Amino acid sequence: MDKEGVVTAIKHFILPELKEIKDNQAKMSIRLDAVEKRLSDINGHLVDQSRRIDETNKKIDEINNRIDEVRTELTGRIDETNKRIDETNNRIDEVRTELTGRIDEVRIELSERIDEVRTELTARIDATNNRIDQLTFQVGKIAQEMERIKREESVTSDILTRLRTLEQKTANL
Q: Which helix (H) or strand (E) holds 159?
């Protein structure tokens, strides 16, 4: 094959294929540009999303810090409240102890006074019973004396009646 034959063969076989390869390369270049543009858009979108995620993370960090502050404040308040409750319970216990002591003292004092009053009333009852016994004895004596007087009165009346009868008999004589 000679030089012209090779050039002609190249023109017929290789040039159309080179042209087709160039056309394909041009199409690929257009597609590659479209893909690069799409990648650029996606990259911009990812950058925007990344910025939004960073802002959201920053807000979450701020919220977490506020939650920690509130937790710390509430824990402090709860501790203060628990301390006040403990103090109140201690005061209640002290008051309960004091009241129990006072009640015990009042009980003892009342028991002593009740015992004193009981002793005094028992003595008075005994004295009253003694007086009643004496009065009963006196009444009994008076009743006996009245019986004796009744008997004597009856005898005296009989004697008087007999004397009158005698007087009348004597006056008639």
A: helix 15-172
Alpha carbon 126 to chain centroid, angstroms: 56
DSSP state of 2: -
Angle subtended at Cα 92 by Cα 90 and Cα 98, rounded to the nearest 5 degrees:
105
Q: How many residues does the chain have?
A: 173
Spatial separation of the C-alpha atoms in residues 26 and 152, rounded to whole Å: 177
173 — pLDDT class (breaks 50, 70, 90): low
The span from the CA of 5 to the CA of 56, in Å, is 72
pTM above 0.90, yes or no: no
* Element (DSSP H or E) covering residue 3: helix 3-9
Instruction: Say how many CA atoms lie within 13 Å of 169 toward its Cβ.
Output: 6
CB half-sphere exposure, 94, CA atoms < 13 A: 6
pLDDT of residue 42: 92
Give the model's pLDDT for residue 66.
Answer: 96
Position 10: which residue type?
I
Q: Output the CA–CA distances (angstroms, integers) from residue 88 to 20, 112, 125, in the order listed.
A: 97, 35, 53
How many Å separate Cα 118 from the centre of its chain?
45
CA–CA distance, 85 with 97 (Å, rounded to integer): 18
